[in-house]
C-alpha cells in the first residue's frame, strides 16, 4: 500500500520515509491538500496531511469518493478538519496529540528575545557594515512580569524558562496547573493579565471561544510597551486590530510564528510573485514586528516525534485499533 503525504518539508521527508520503511510506501508532496489537490489522493486509502490542509465537507467527500478511508494529520491542532463530515464520509481521522513542548516554548522565547533586543535589525545593519546602536535599545527580561495565556505543556515550559530569567509569572487558563503554581505563578483573569504583563505569550488551542481572543479591546488593555508573542494559532489574534494598534504607536515588540490566513502562504516561496494579503504585508512594515512561517515545532526532536506518532496512528488504523490520537474512529 502507498500512503500519500501532503505538505511535506524537504527536511521532513527522509524521516517519514525511514519511519515507514518496511511498512508502506510513501509518496511525498510539497503542496497542500485542498479542493484542487484532493483528486491526487484517488486510490490512496491513507492520506497524511499538514496543519494547513483544508479538510472541509467538500474535500472530505472527494477523498472518500476516491477511496480514502484514513487521514493522519501531522499536527496537534485540528481546527481545519470538519470532524462531523469526516464521520459521515466514513473517514478515520487521527492527529498527533503531543510532541516536544520544548520546541515551541523555546522558539516563543527566541521571538521574544529577538524583538526585545532588535536582533534582526542589528544583524541586517551589520551585513551593511552599519554598526550604530541607534534604535537598538531593548530591556532586561529579568524582573519583567510575564503573562502566559494557556498553561498546558508548552505554556508550562515557557513559564519555566521565564522563571529562569527571573520574571514574575501571571497565568490564565480554565484549569490551574499545579506545576505552574509551584513556580509562583499567579492565576488571574485575562483582562488583568493583559493589563499588567510586560510580555504576553499565547499557548491556547484555536476553538470557537478562543477565536480572536486578542482583539482590539484586548490590545487596548495592554501596556504601550508590551511585547506580544503568538506561536499557537493565527486565529487567536485579530491581525487587522494589531495593525491598528501598531499604527497608533503601541506595543514594543510583536513576534508571530502563525497568521490567521497563513494557508497557501506559509511553506511556499512567494519571493518572486509577492503576496496579495494586505494585512500581512502591512504587519511586515513595522520594525518591531518579527514574523516567521510556523516553524516553532520544527526541530529534529519534535519532527521525529510527530513522524513516529503518525506512523503509529497508521499502524493502529490498519490493525483496526484506536489510540489517544484518534479523533474519528473507524
From TrEMBL:
InterPro entries associated with the record: D-isomer_2_OHA_DH_cat_dom, D-isomer_DH_CS, D-isomer_DH_NAD-bd, D-LDH-like, NAD(P)-bd_dom_sf
Pfam families: 2-Hacid_dh, 2-Hacid_dh_C
Enzyme Commission number(s) from the entry: 1.1.1.28
Domain D-isomer specific 2-hydroxyacid dehydrogenase catalytic: 4-325
GO molecular function, one term: D-lactate dehydrogenase (NAD+) activity
Residue ranges constituting the D-isomer specific 2-hydroxyacid dehydrogenase NAD-binding domain according to the UniProt record: 110-296
Tree of life domain: Bacteria
Gene3D superfamilies assigned to the protein according to its UniProt record, in alphabetical order: NAD(P)-binding Rossmann-like Domain
Keyword NAD (UniProt): yes
SUPFAM superfamilies the record matches: Formate/glycerate dehydrogenase catalytic domain-like (SSF52283), NAD(P)-binding Rossmann-fold domains (SSF51735)
Stored PROSITE patterns: D_2_HYDROXYACID_DH_3
Keyword Oxidoreductase belongs to the record: yes
Keywords (A to Z) from UniProt: NAD, Oxidoreductase
Family (UniProt): Belongs to the D-isomer specific 2-hydroxyacid dehydrogenase family.
This protein's name: 2-hydroxyacid dehydrogenase
Organism: Streptomyces lavendulocolor
Amino acid at each position: 500500500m502507498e500512503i500519500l503525504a501532503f505538505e511535506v518539508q524537504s527536511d521532513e521527508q527522509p524521516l517519514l520515509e525511514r519511519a515507514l520503511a518496511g511498512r508502506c510506501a510513501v509518496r511525498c508532496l510539497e503542496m497542500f491538500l485542498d479542493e484542487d489537490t484532493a483528486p491526487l489522493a484517488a486510490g490512496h486509502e491513507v492520506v497524511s496531511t499538514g496543519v494547513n490542509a483544508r479538510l472541509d465537507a467538500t474535500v472530505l467527500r472527494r477523498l472518500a469518493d476516491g477511496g480514502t478511508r484514513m487521514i493522519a494529520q501531522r499536527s496537534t491542532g485540528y481546527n481545519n478538519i470538519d470532524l462531523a463530515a469526516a464521520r459521515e464520509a466514513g473517514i478515520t481521522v487521527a492527529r498527533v496529540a503531543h510532541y516536544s513542548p520544548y520546541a515551541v516554548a523555546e522558539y516563543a522565547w527566541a521571538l521574544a528575545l529577538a524583538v526585545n533586543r532588535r536582533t534582526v535589525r542589528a544583524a541586517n545593519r551589520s551585513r551593511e557594515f552599519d554598526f550604530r546602536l541607534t534604535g537598538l535599545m531593548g530591556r532586561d527580561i529579568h524582573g519583567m512580569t510575564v503573562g502566559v495565556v494557556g498553561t498546558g505543556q508548552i505554556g508550562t515550559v515557557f513559564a519555566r524558562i521565564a522563571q529562569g530569567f527571573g520574571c514574575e509569572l501571571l497565568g490564565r487558563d480554565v484549569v490551574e496547573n499545579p506545576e505552574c503554581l509551584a513556580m509562583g505563578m499567579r492565576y488571574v483573569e485575562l483582562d488583568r493579565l493583559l493589563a499588567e504583563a510586560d510580555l504576553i505569550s499565547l499557548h491556547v488551542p484555536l476553538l470557537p471561544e478562543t477565536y480572536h481572543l486578542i482583539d482590539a479591546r484586548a490590545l487596548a488593555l495592554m501596556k504601550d510597551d508590551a511585547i506580544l508573542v503568538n506561536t499557537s494559532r493565527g486565529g487567536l489574534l485579530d491581525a487587522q486590530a494589531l495593525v491598528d494598534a501598531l499604527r497608533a504607536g503601541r506595543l514594543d515588540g510583536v513576534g508571530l510564528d502563525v497568521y490567521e490566513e497563513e494557508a497557501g502562504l506559509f511553506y511556499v516561496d512567494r519571493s518572486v510573485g509577492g503576496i496579495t494579503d494586505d494585512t500581512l504585508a502591512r504587519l511586515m512594515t513595522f520594525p518591531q514586528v518579527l514574523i516567521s512561517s510556523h516553524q516553532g515545532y520544527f526541530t529534529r526532536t519534535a519532527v521525529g516525534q510527530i513522524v513516529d506518532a503518525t506512523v503509529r496512528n497508521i499502524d493502529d488504523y490498519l490493525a483496526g485499533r484506536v489510540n489517544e490520537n484518534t479523533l474519528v474512529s473507524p
